[in-house]
């Protein structure tokens, strides 16, 4: 785990929520320019999860974009046949890499952008408001709301800027 992620290598992604580990998985490093890290990993859940607007299941592949200077992550989701389901976007603090580990702190706000051209769906605003972040860290809360607005802008052209 002490190695730095290199293209073609692997990195361990740890998603934190309020300093607790939410999920941990190994991903293949596709690109890393020192600011923007792109990884690919299969669905890390042990069973399918139906959100109502999308179902994640075994065989799904996530191509995930993390930034060390942005307050969000964008995850393109494709099914086992390669068909794009959409993009699941997390509002996060900027990602931090420590050797072969990438830590990402989830701030509750999320955005789902369906591949079929449907309207983006804001998620978990109630969880964000209940988290107390606005009171504990007003700066981070303001950055989180701005990140959600930035993601909605990127979603307008279905993240074409990511390639």
UniProtKB/TrEMBL annotation:
> InterPro entries given for it?
DUF402, FomD-like_sf, Ntdp-like
Q: Which SUPFAM superfamilies match?
A: FomD-like (SSF159234)
| DUF402 domain segment(s) | 37-156
Keywords recorded for this protein, A-Z: Hydrolase
Q: Which GO terms describe its molecular function?
A: hydrolase activity
Offer one Pfam family short name for this entry: DUF402
Instruction: Please report the name of this protein according to its UniProt entry.
Output: DUF402 domain-containing protein
């Amino acid at each position: 785990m002490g190695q730095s992620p290199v293209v073609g290598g692997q990195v361990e992604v740890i998603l934190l929520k309020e300093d607790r580990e939410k999920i941990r998985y190994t991903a293949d490093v596709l690109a890393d320019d020192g600011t923007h890290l792109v990884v690919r990993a299969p669905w890390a859940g042990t069973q399918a999860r139906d959100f109502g607007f999308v179902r994640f299941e075994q065989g799904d592949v996530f191509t995930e974009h993390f930034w060390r200077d942005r307050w969000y992550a964008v995850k393109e989701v494709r099914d086992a046949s390669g068909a794009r389901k959409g993009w699941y976007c997390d509002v996060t603090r900027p990602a931090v890499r420590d050797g072969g580990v990438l830590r990402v702190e989830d701030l509750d706000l999320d955005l789902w952008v369906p591949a079929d051209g449907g309207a983006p769906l804001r998620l978990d605003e109630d969880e964000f408001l209940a988290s107390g972040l606005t009171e504990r860290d007003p700066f981070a809360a303001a950055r989180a709301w701005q990140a959600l607005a930035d993601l909605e802008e990127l979603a307008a052209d279905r993240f074409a800027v990511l390639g």
